[in-house]
Amino acid sequence: MVFVPEPGYYEPGRFGIRLETVVMVEPTNTTHKFGDKQFLRFKPITLVPFEPNLIDYSLLSKRQIEWLSDYHKLTQETIKPLLTTTLAKDWLKARTNSFTDHSTSAAHNTPVTMAMLVMAIASALTFRKSPVCLT
Question: Which of 23, 53, 84, 90 could bridge 106 with an S-S bond, Cβ 3.0-4.6 Å?
Answer without folding.
Answer: 53
